[in-house]
UniProtKB/TrEMBL annotation:
Record has Magnesium as a keyword: no
EC code: 1.1.1.14
Keyword Oxidoreductase (UniProt): yes
Protein name: Alcohol dehydrogenase GroES-like protein
Chain ranges of the Enoyl reductase (ER) domain: 4-335
Keywords noted in UniProt: Oxidoreductase
Top enzyme class: oxidoreductase
Classification via InterPro entries: ADH-like_C, ADH-like_N, ER, GroES-like_sf, NAD(P)-bd_dom_sf
Domain of life, source organism: Bacteria
An example molecular function term from Gene Ontology annotations: L-iditol 2-dehydrogenase (NAD+) activity
Amino acid sequence: MRASVLRESRMVARDDVPEPAPGPGQVLVAVRACGICGSDLHFAQHGAEMIELARDVRDAPMDTRLDLDADVFMGHEFSAEILEAGPGTTAPAPGTLVTSQPILISGERIDGIVFSNTVIGGYAERMLLSAPLLLTVPNGLDAQRAALTEPLAVGIHAVNASRIRPGDAALVIGAGPVGISIIAALRAAGVEHVVSSDFSPVRRTLAQAMGAAEAVDPAVRSPFDVVRPTVIFEAVGVPGILDEAVRMAPSGARLVSVGMSMQPDSVRPAFAAMKNLSVRFVFGHSPKEFAAALTAIADGVVDVAPMITSTVGLDDVGAAFDGLSDPERHCKILVTP
């Protein structure tokens, strides 16, 4: 079987990956589309640092036993077609298009389908999924748009955590894939006054296509001069952004950090305290939010098509990783094995 794997910080194609066999409660699927996530790009360059940091954090949602001297499977934003169910497993019929939260249950063992030496992800021709977690793709939705269920679920989770209401104003700092997903989730939640901030003109245009009322170039004008936000979403993950948001936020605002900076950062708590700011860090999504994301896409509430800027095969995943480093070229590249 063919797959693209991380080897020595580069994505390379393999033709000799053992064929996965579904066990009880599992299904074998053919991957139809898989989005390349920013976390995959970061892990490719900083995997050793991420593992080391996770070892120092209690309850870190990451497998710290990963061997970076061995091939690493990735790909967690996927849609797939069912091929075969494991022994004694009830599942949709073969040929059904499905998606799932990126979790594989093997008896009493639970593995994330994110970074693994053994659990095959969506950058492969075939993979295993957990039958209880499957969601059938409805309404004739195509595989490429269905693959963006997971990133939209991240945006929905951030919006839910913010407790924003339709009449509130939102500022989304950063218009990469995460920021774009937050904008889409805000509009789906009925929030109309959404302002986006990003240095890239291409991403500012995409932010408005996805529902932002205005997109600001922070090199020209502070977004805080354009909007007095009830909620600020930080979706950059670069040191200094949080402190700037705390410094500029209006009194009583809520700050939600989704940027996932892996580096130490400095924030002046006194500024947050004096303005009675609420600061929350969020990650991932719940099964309910994942299902809501699929429904929103399938029902046409959120059109994720503008996010898809290219598709590649397994041989070109490495080049796609390189291309995603340029915000003027791409937002979301899909791998179609």
